[in-house]
Amino acid sequence: MSHRTFSVSRPRNAAAVLLLVLLATPPAAARGRYYNHSGSIETSHPDWLSWMPGSASLASLSLPGTHDSMAFTSTGGDLTQTQSLSLRAQLDAGLRALDIRCRHIGDRFAIHHGVVYLNANFDDVLTTTTQFLRDHPGETILMRVKEEHTPDGNSRSFQQTFEWYRNQPAYSPYVWRGTHVPTLGEVRGKIVILDNFGGGAYGVTWGSLALQDDWTVSTIFDIDNKWDKVRDHLGRTNAGAPPTLYVNFLSGSSVAAFPNVVAGGDGMAIRGVNDYAIDHLVGGNVQRAGVLMMDFPGAGLIDAILALNYRLLPSASILPGDFGTAFRNISYTLGGDAQARWYGIHAFLQNAAPGRLWHALALKGSWAGWMHTDGSYVQSDTMDDYTHLAFTSRTVTSAVSNGFLGSFVNSQLGAFSGGTGDRAAQLHGRVSSRFPFQLWSVVVKKSPGGLSNWAYSDYGTGYKATQGDYTYAVQAYSAADGVYLYEHGQFEGNILHLTSGVGFLGDLGFDDILSSVRILGPYRATLCEHPSRTGRCLSTTQSVGDINSVAGGPWNDQVSSAGIDFVGVR
Prior knowledge:
Layout: E1 16-21, E2 62-66, H1 87-93, E3 97-105, E4 108-113, E5 116-121, H2 122-135, E6 141-147, H3 158-166, H4 184-187, E7 191-196, E8 204-205, E9 210-212, H5 223-239, E10 246-249, H6 259-264, H7 273-282, E11 290-294, H8 299-307, H9 322-330, H10 338-352, E12 358-364, E13 367-373, E14 377-379, E15 386-392, H11 402-412, H12 420-434, E16 439-446, E17 454-456, E18 462-467, E19 470-477, E20 482-488, E21 492-498, E22 516-520, E23 523-530, E24 534-540, E25 561-566
Parallel strand pairs: 2-11, 3-6, 6-7, 7-8, 9-10, 10-11
Antiparallel strand pairs: 1-13, 3-4, 4-5, 12-15, 12-17, 13-16, 14-15, 16-19, 18-19, 20-21, 20-22, 23-24, 23-25
Helix pairs in contact: 1-2, 5-7, 7-8, 8-9
């Protein structure tokens, strides 16, 4: 994981200041981000549904799930094992849809995969899921219940035994009794049964689902064909009727293509379904994925599905902290040079969390950044010597012109010393001191530069300069509300930011040099030719690029005092 050194303060609008310096990190395996065959996993989302609006239908969500969820041991060998995580570990990782296959034997349910008993019973499943819901009451779990293998030694029907389990005092409060596709608010803290045994009497009927479960993959050379079916159903889900619950099985197997290879490929030339799926999801091709039932899902694949739900949050809200986990894990799917990686970051962010002003960067080698954020911030591990990061800002409005910013930065370059971190801190300190009315990000890159080595969003006012081995990129955004006075027309040159009146602009070095004015927010500026608001005056609530265009002039280089008033609700 990439190391970060933080210097955090709380300037205006609760913006955070971050100092980021790249340090060497060990390489990490990309394959583990879509395929996982170990007893642990590099992601954790035990409460992610608690962030989602209660009004959201379960059909509107993108829910990662597991096929044959209890087949997480080697009982039966590679042909029957479909998972590597225990049931509780699956839930803690963020998986919210389970596939539970029950053999009816002795008036109880034994958990099977085909003929293979998985050394677990339905009590084990319900005990684990209800304990999870007690620990995380904002969550819900979809549970497909299906009769598996041949019944034996029973005195009652499968449905009656299910009712017996459901009515146990330890489980009954956690099993939802409805049969329609509910909203999340209806079923927080509950198990929603996908009824594949009772015709819909015990939950959402399996027959009502829009389903893709073509599980036969005859040989490993048919994995591409299985992916085509998954991808086509993702397209149907994305464009489908909002009330319909879509379920899509990524799993497949045969005696010539075991589940682990269908999911993860052979580690060489054959790609697995999970590999195709993560690229498709991260690439911004899907906005609603439905319920995806998977074998051996990796951290990145889980997170790529889960991250689609953040688009349901208001765009003005700061994203929950576990969005950073998702960003870190999906970054392993990115490849190419810095420019290609930037496009990948941008596509993912705009799809998963649209409506926000994202600043994205892809940087290779020796670099450092010092930046204000007044929104969400995410950063990847270092991979192939690249680091990806992104943050949001309140606006991308800058009050400083490119030309004036460039002049200021060029005047400072000779004073910087040290490494990339020192230089980033020095430049950020100087632009923030000179122009304290807005936020700044500074990235310093040691050579080599170019789009193969760094790429970043370019909003509004920015400047880039190279001196010696170092290139400096400065970006301005989130200008504060107020009245801005400029010495030249079209908002160029020296600048003065006001939020209250000034009896004599000469006290601030701005007497008789005003040529243009910018208004941000609910302000009225009254500008007068003599001190103490005497003589000829003009008033404006709009920005004016050429002050002489206002009637009653000439006004250019004629103003000596300013009155500032609120004209609305801030």
